[in-house]
Fold L-galactono-1,4-lactone dehydrogenase, mitochondrial.
Amino acid sequence: MLRSFISKRSLQSFLRYHHHHQHHRRPFSTTPGPPTADAELRKYIGYTLLLVASGAATYYSFPFPENARDKKAQLFRYAPLPDDLHTVTNWSGTHEVRTRTFLQPESIEQLEGIVKEGHERKHKIRPVGSGLSPNGIGLTRAGMVNLALMDKVLSVDKEKKRVTVQAGIRVQQLVDEIKEYGITLQNFASIREQQIGGIVQVGAHGTGARLPPIDEQVISMKLVTPAKGTIEISKEKDPELFYLARCGLGGLGVVAEVTLQCVERQELVEHTFLSNMKDIKKNHKKFLSENKHVKYLHIPYTDAVVVVTCNPVSKLRGPPKHKPIYTTEEALQHVRDLYQESLKKYRSQVAASGSPDEREVDELSFTELRDKLLVMDPLNKEHVIKVNKAEAEYWRKSEGYRVGWSDEILGFDCGGHQWVSETCFPAGTLSKPSMKDLEYIEELMQLIEKESVPAPAPIEQRWTACSKSRMSPAYSSADDDIFSWVGIIMYLPTMDAKQRKQITEEFFHYRHMTQAQLWDRYSAFEHWAKIEVPKDKEELAALQARLKKKFPVDAYNQARNELDPNHILSNNMLEKLFPSSEAQ
């Protein structure tokens, strides 16, 4: 009865397969057949290589002696694995689990059977979407259920602009399928590969002070729960549970179907220009109130602030006629020049990272070039400052306008593997911004410079209206409240295990400083897809207490214990963040 898709070595490879082979899906049982002699031989060879890889990883996890500074460990990501073992890695390359239970139902009936059996056996089946959460919130080695094969548009109400979909449908797939009806989603996050169930459950968001987080677009949901079976909830039908479960972190039931309130499909004009904090302060209220979408990209160790606004094309004036001053090639030239200059200093590091030759460098995008620059010396503050200044120059020469549909315009190239921490905090109201959002940034920049943090760009700042979902970081009972979202980042541009470990340690030091200096004073809470569970017991206890002050943790745990008494939909992260004495 339990069905599974072909095992992939990472969720990213599964996504690529699913996108290109929609008409060749052949699910089969996760239980392996009788092994052949060759299969047995391959299995034991795989175990041997896995043991060697584990030994190497363990060795490089401990402090290095002074005479071992130049030693290097390579990740053994492609060692042969047992046929029934699935390796699932999140998009940012920061979390990975191996499990023998990775189930992909093709219908709600199959999903109901999976949840029922998991409940009876007390076997975990944590819901996981596209694996895009930087903290791997959907991952657990105990077992997962993924709805990528439940990806259909079920109905469209063109008049009411509403669409009902299976929760495994990806954002881009949904948008492509409903554009013929002249409708689209109200807002978008930076990328489009999220499954609808996942993007809603973690309280993801786009930008625009008049626009709420994406969970507010949900007007009804169908949840498959372990204890009460399949239930339908909305603000008319069980509103208390609806507003709790809408941003439920996958812990109250597997979201099987979602009805979304859409909007008319519009062409937008994107305007990108370089500013500075002095001018931003003068125009901040105007930027928030007069633009449908607006975000700032702050560049550490410079006064540069990239402003990106998006608004509907004027029906009277049409799209702007302005032509860019610089071509894309001219905008990239300064970054390429820095790369060639840096090659002379960091030739050995570039050779070790397998950097492309000059011809290939000319074909790289800006974010790819930034990765190639940072990999040379990612924790050297002076080197990072040079890269940041080159980024500021790139954006100065990229000023101009772009016209396209909202699903084309409202994206952002986030770069490659990375660590990220994003906080959400109140910023007053649209009619009366508190200016706390800019004060937060100023203090953050001062902290970076004071502590000599090798902080790369950008520090992305976005805004949303409030959410009525009680577990949303942007929850407020006041309709006119607005919230600012600020993300700090450190890239992982290398596969060198030692260097990745050093970057990781530096990032968590960076994050800890922002937490200690800013979070409490600004009532800032991390995005659910980016919160990391502390290993230290005292820090964990402090986090648990802090979450209880902001969120209805007791009500959430009560609902979990009623709908999922065995916590089969949970994982270590949820149990640590929301400990419950009633869990069985």
Q: What stands out?
A: The radius of gyration is 24 Å. The mean pLDDT is 86.
